[in-house]
Amino acid sequence: MFGAILTSPVNLLPVYVLNSATVRKSVYVVADEEFVTKVYSARELESALQHGAKVIEIAADFKIDRTLYVGADTEIFARSPRTLTRAEDFAGDIFVVGETRKGEASDEAVTFTLGNETSSRKDLLVIDGNKANMEVDVKGSAIFTCKNSKTDIHNVDFINHKKVGNEKALDSKYSLSYPELAGGAMAILTTGSTMNIYGGTYSNNDVNTSTSTGTSYYGGGFYNFGTMNVYGGTFSSNRASRAGAIYNYRVLNIHNATFKSNYAASNGGAIYMPSSTGA
């Protein structure tokens, strides 16, 4: 089914739905005097996050073969076109925001900024799920947000993510409804978390399109159980059994976004909201 089905009111302004390890010591000061840590590999990015780097530049294309925990306020951006690609044998979440690697909540509220909000370029940073080449069944999202965290995404492209199961989402501490069904190949927002999207492209992401699988088929791109605000961006060719692009269970505000050629086998080609949604 192409197009969008909304089963309860949603706060929508103009929306166009068309069919739906050590860190290298390459540190320098930018105009606002913040220190920037350059990283050239997943290992260096992990180390930078563990050591509390506040501003991190992706300085090379590389594969992500581990989960990266964002436990403090952090900005990650690219100064020139860079692509982070899921490694063929890595099945977990790529970024977990607001939690430590031990599964403990961060001591304070965390703001994760991905992309450069001052850049006019739309393609500087790409997060590629590499679904055509995966050797394992992916059971994690590109971003998993935890309680009291805020994620701001500026002009980042998320493409080619595919998720066929769940691991982290099944933990009862996240209080997700029907967690085994949570899709969100691109992102899962848990209770008390917020995601703000400022442009970017979210394309060719999918979860199971068959209800007979019994797992991970709500929301090809996003599964929202928190607060999601969209201020521009293009959502295209995302697929799921229900809600090709966004499955919204809580609060969704969309301002000037384009949805095209998203697909759902049952309901909500682009967006689906169950009747219990508290928007």
Textual characterization of the structure:
- This protein is mostly beta strands and 279 residues long.
- 3% of the residues lie in helices and 35% in strands.
- The chain has 1 helix and 27 strands.
- It has one helix at residues 42-50; strands at residues 11-12, 15-18, 27-29, 35-39, 55-58, 62-64, 68-70, 74-77, 82-86, 95-97, 110-114, 125-128, 143-145, 149-154, 156-159, 187-189, 194-198, 201-203, 222-224, 227-231, 234-236, 239-240, 246-248, 251-255, 257-260, 263-264, 271-272.
- The strands form 4 sheets. It has a 10-stranded mixed β-sheet, with helices on one face.
- Helix 1 (42-50) links the parallel strand 4 (35-39) and strand 5.
- The longest helix is centred in the first third of the chain and has 9 residues, at 42-50.
- The chain is globular and about 50 Å long.
- The chain starts with 10 loop residues before the first strand and ends in a 7-residue tail after the last strand.
Task: Please tally the β strands and state the result.
Answer: 27
Helix percentage: under 10%
Number of helices: 1
* Low-pLDDT windows of residues: 2-31
In short:
The protein has 279 residues and is mainly beta. Helices cover 3% and strands 35% of the residues. It contains 1 helix and 27 strands.
Q: What distinguishing features does this structure have?
A:
eight-stranded parallel sheet, mainly beta
Topology overview:
Layout: E1 11-12, E2 15-18, E3 27-29, E4 35-39, H1 42-50, E5 55-58, E6 62-64, E7 68-70, E8 74-77, E9 82-86, E10 95-97, E11 110-114, E12 125-128, E13 143-145, E14 149-154, E15 156-159, E16 187-189, E17 194-198, E18 201-203, E19 222-224, E20 227-231, E21 234-236, E22 239-240, E23 246-248, E24 251-255, E25 257-260, E26 263-264, E27 271-272
Parallel strand pairs: 1-24, 2-25, 4-5, 5-8, 6-9, 7-10, 8-11, 9-12, 10-13, 11-14, 12-15, 13-16, 14-17, 15-18, 16-19, 17-20, 18-21, 19-23, 20-24, 21-25, 22-26, 23-27
Antiparallel strand pairs: 3-4
